[in-house]
Amino acid sequence: MSEELVPHPNESLPGPRASPREVWKKGGRLLSVLLAVNVLLLACTLISGGAFNKVAVYDTDVFALLTTMMLLAALWIIFYLLRTARSPDAVPYRDAHAGPIWLRGGLVLFGICTLVMDVFKTGYYSSFFECQSAIKILHPITQAVFVIVQTYFLWISAKDCIHTHLDLTRCGLMFTLATNLAIWMTAVVDESVHQAHSFSGFHGNTSHTRLTPDSERAGGTAEGDPCPCSTAICQIFQQGYFYLYPFNIEYSLFASTMLYVMWKNVGRLLASAHGHGHTPSRVSLFRETFFAGPVLGLLLFVVGLAVFILYEVQVSGERGHTQQALVIYYSFNIVCLGLMTLVSLSGSVIYRFDRRAMDHHKNPTRTLDVALLMGAALGQYAISYYSIVAVVVGSPRDLLGALNLSHALLMIAQHTFQNVFIIESLHRGPPGAEPRETPPKELYQGITFANLSAIHTLPSCPPTPRLVSPNPEGPQEAVAIVSAPRCHWRRRCLKDISLFLLLCNVILWIMPAFGARPHFSNTVEVDFYGYSLWAAIVNICLPFGIFYRMHAVSSLLEVYVLS
């Protein structure tokens, strides 16, 4: 964990009045935040207005704004890479905890999926180029360029603590962050509108939304449609890019997180180039574990994959199999969430007996990790509470309703207790940070141990047969050797717990990330809230739940290493 240094000797010492540089640092941050807020509010206004027929805002207006924002953000990134980052002493420090490999790897993965989506979208709009505005083809091409430039920028610069062009860099980072959030909101609204059109067409209802083009509302077969999607390749492009929307949503969230960390690190001073924190240790999977956690976690992972495949096959098949698929899906999730809750509770209980010192060093990255865990969990909390109200108030008392209610309650409990376990784990010191049981070192200074048995007469010094040489560090070695076995079982249990929760979070990420939507297959909430409202709730909150699972996996891996 990195600590900020004392100001330079030429600067004013800390006192009641902050230095001018510190005052302007706050002013620069405020200016960049105000810029981002205003840009984001303008984008949100156009995006939400373009989703309804009765508002005179068209999808071409939304695409034009997003294209302009992405071009400006890409130009600033190029300026940063070619000018700002290459200035002398521009990056004197690099935050070792920023931009971890899992976050950059996830960004690349979702970025590739976003590029595929842009290819599909470009092919779709090119299928009827004669009756479409050119901005609809320019938008996905611009987004592809923006994704490539931004991914490269975040991969090489995520750890930078920039000290040149401070205000311009802060404003550029915040503007790019606002652009990613606008792209995220566009994808959420577009996916919700598409689902609403599909639901309305299936039930013979009409909709008052229009962000999705008219040709997509009726599947491209409506009479009098000026832009029919009648060819097979056009249908493939259309279905393909809607299937890839969740990956685009996750990409925007990942990029926004990394940009926020970079914004916080602008002008930051670190104690050293490597910062201050836990010394990274080599990860040896399954080493020093009881194997119960990894084995049970792998078993649930395999069973979860089978349940997910079965669910997708049965839900997309005949109607009669949908309820059976939901029962199997909810049953597996209830078992998995219940075990995860109990295991997280047991981990918190084990920490009551852990003597490792708490790490109180200042670490903005850890603070952000905790904030992301708590904030991303709110998405799943919201879905669960909406489901609880719908089941308790408006649902008939049947098996599916009981499973839905149990699933929602366990989802809340699991997120809560897992967050408690992870956050407490991240604030524990590394192995070997246990407080010494021996008296202060000064008590042994000047003593020559001519007789090894005399060591055992010293206070709080347990006997040990492993001392082979009379030296002042002998008593401390004895305590470490004797106390290590007493802590060994706790370390093994914590490693088992971390691996079990890690594997469970992976399968619970795979299911919603690759298309499992029991929220719509189960009609309880749809009937209670209406499809449009429920689709908006799920499409806004679920991406945060998916992000939470990925972030929990990375945090649990760190917990495993620190245990």
TrEMBL record:
<feature type="transmembrane region" description="Helical">
    <location>
        <begin position="137"/>
        <end position="156"/>
    </location>
</feature>
<feature type="transmembrane region" description="Helical">
    <location>
        <begin position="497"/>
        <end position="516"/>
    </location>
</feature>
<dbReference type="GO" id="GO:0015252">
    <property type="term" value="F:proton channel activity"/>
</dbReference>
<feature type="transmembrane region" description="Helical">
    <location>
        <begin position="327"/>
        <end position="351"/>
    </location>
</feature>
<keyword id="KW-0812">Transmembrane</keyword>
<dbReference type="InterPro" id="IPR004878">
    <property type="entry name" value="Otopetrin"/>
</dbReference>
<feature type="transmembrane region" description="Helical">
    <location>
        <begin position="242"/>
        <end position="263"/>
    </location>
</feature>
<feature type="region of interest" description="Disordered">
    <location>
        <begin position="1"/>
        <end position="20"/>
    </location>
</feature>
<feature type="transmembrane region" description="Helical">
    <location>
        <begin position="62"/>
        <end position="81"/>
    </location>
</feature>
<keyword id="KW-1133">Transmembrane helix</keyword>
<feature type="transmembrane region" description="Helical">
    <location>
        <begin position="371"/>
        <end position="393"/>
    </location>
</feature>
<comment type="similarity">
    <text>Belongs to the otopetrin family.</text>
</comment>
<feature type="transmembrane region" description="Helical">
    <location>
        <begin position="528"/>
        <end position="548"/>
    </location>
</feature>
<feature type="transmembrane region" description="Helical">
    <location>
        <begin position="30"/>
        <end position="50"/>
    </location>
</feature>
<feature type="transmembrane region" description="Helical">
    <location>
        <begin position="101"/>
        <end position="117"/>
    </location>
</feature>
<feature type="transmembrane region" description="Helical">
    <location>
        <begin position="290"/>
        <end position="311"/>
    </location>
</feature>
<keyword id="KW-0407">Ion channel</keyword>
<keyword id="KW-0406">Ion transport</keyword>
<keyword id="KW-0813">Transport</keyword>
<protein>
    <submittedName>
        <fullName>Otopetrin 2 (Predicted)</fullName>
    </submittedName>
</protein>
<dbReference type="Pfam" id="PF03189">
    <property type="entry name" value="Otopetrin"/>
</dbReference>
<keyword id="KW-0375">Hydrogen ion transport</keyword>
<dbReference type="GO" id="GO:0005886">
    <property type="term" value="C:plasma membrane"/>
</dbReference>
<keyword id="KW-1003">Cell membrane</keyword>
<keyword id="KW-0472">Membrane</keyword>
